[in-house]
């Protein structure tokens, strides 16, 4: 009976329309839409990667080898299990164009392929032509295709000549798209495609050159990928090969997209938390306006549960409406923007309607709505009918009954568990939740502090009526101070934290690094070239420093007789790492444990390991490490630990061995050159002319490339933070709208006492600006604290307050609050005092 009656009463209440619930619906719908939209884009990308996984990889499966080609045994096995095997060699080099005796150079990432490339998918060229025709070249020269960025940088057109190493090529076409573009990871230069056979006379693939080989396999339809991976791992256990297949063809790209999407969803949850403040305020205001209705129902014998269920059903129905609006927006926005998003993505995306992100967004929205509405709903049970006639909702108990508090805590626990489940990153989820909770507590305390300070300073003011009126309104109990500081402050806190993190990361890359970084990194210097290389630089007065070291790459396959990945899951053990040898310890590195080997040492292999990484893995002096170098295992004992600064941009290696341990291993040299900027062009020209096989990486170009990646990530996070801030602004508008009646009465009193419209408006504006500035200052403190925590514990970098962002946050808070306050100030100014005061009788 109670349920049926409550449902009937709720339905009749809803006939009055949605007046009073517009902010409720807007906050809920916007938060849900943001989470749903991020989830839909992430699902579209994941679906595209899954659909095109084999094409992105370049085959059904791939074996990658570091700085060597497959052995006859490895090739025989691959050809035995696959229908077709395609070999691809990937490395960096300099593309050179001669113009009137002057050479122009640009770094390019070369993919040297065979006739079978691509096994899956198609290469698209401009002008359109088969890849075989492009490689055929013209005028007796082999052909090359390059990405548009490289073609434009070198001002090339089809038919122009370009040189790689000592081999000339003719540019046949622009490389518009190729199927395995997302499988190569991060590149410092635009891509070029050539036939591997055409590089035979280039001098670029000599022994010791830094390159990778990928063997793509077109497998039979019934092939068992897991069984083949296990067989390859067992058969070639110590060869250092890495296996990938179509189950995870995009590799790190897919992981990055997933993690970035999870992070943006968590930012969306922050927006929902901001919206929760507005939701709670809207429900409180609505229930306060229903005082007479509730009192009447209680007088007629309605029970506490009947009243609670009546408004619970009503709020529940409105929540479902808000969820529906949010989900619709979350679906329609990505679908509408799909052509634009797809055009800007370097990876495939398959847009459609995906249930999982919609379920996730709806669940979050429903839980947040329940958490923030249950408190004001529960308080209706605790208020007597007689009290309702006197003092509306304010006379009820401060806290709801215990069962409602337990339910709220349970909903919070379910929300956290759901976020952990959907994001798959419990540490980031709990950190975000802790940050939101901490910010809410801080902002609540700040709101109370602002009210107390306003009351204290307002009493002592003389001769400043406008400021005194503003401070009096801010310090009023039950006013809009709490809602403004909470809603605007939380949104600004998220934006401030993102601004501080982005600014510090950008500062570390663009400001600090160039002051200490070398001008160039030179790689692929052959041993017979290193003396001439140094001779050119030693006599140059504009060169301040040259550091050189032999360079190999090795994969740690074993630790103390056990497979390395069974011992620890650490980045050093993932893939190949830089390896060098030396008779003496590096000048800038301190030995913190053990001793360096003697200069003439010729005993069993010894290795020096970076201290921090060794401690993280659990290694110490005396432990044994097996490193696979060019397919050969070298087992060495740790002789010492070094303190290595990988952030200095100098040459730094995790591992260094005694020279005898790597005797006879083909290798090249790497060098860093510190020089004046005006000398860089001459250095590059002279060294490249003398040694065409050497690859130069200009540090400023590398920094610009990294900065572009950071710009994309920062833009995505700023969009998420902006959605949170927009929700906060909606809550702010709701608070201003809710206070319009109070300001109308206040304006009527002030007019009666002789105040002019100008003075009243100035008081309203000053009140709004002070509240916004207060919210901005508190948000700045929370944002700086959050930015410091991320910089210190996640990025492990130094932190400094980015004052431009900080000042912008405070000014933005003041302006946003001022706009909302003034937007709802004009109508109170227009009313006639007699009408308002007569209505209060």
From TrEMBL:
Organism for this UniProt entry: Limimaricola hongkongensis DSM 17492
Sequence ranges assigned to domain ABC3 transporter permease C-terminal in this UniProt record: 266-379, 722-830
Subcellular location(s) of the protein: Cell membrane
Pfam family, one: MacB_PCD
Main location: membrane
Protein's recorded name: ABC transporter, permease protein, putative
Residues spanning the membrane: 21-41, 263-287, 308-341, 361-378, 404-426, 432-454, 719-739, 760-788, 800-826
Its membrane topology: Multi-pass membrane protein
MacB-like periplasmic core domain location: 25-231
Single GO cellular component term: plasma membrane
The keyword Transferase appears for this protein: no
Organism superkingdom: Bacteria
Record's keyword terms, sorted: Cell membrane, Membrane, Transmembrane, Transmembrane helix
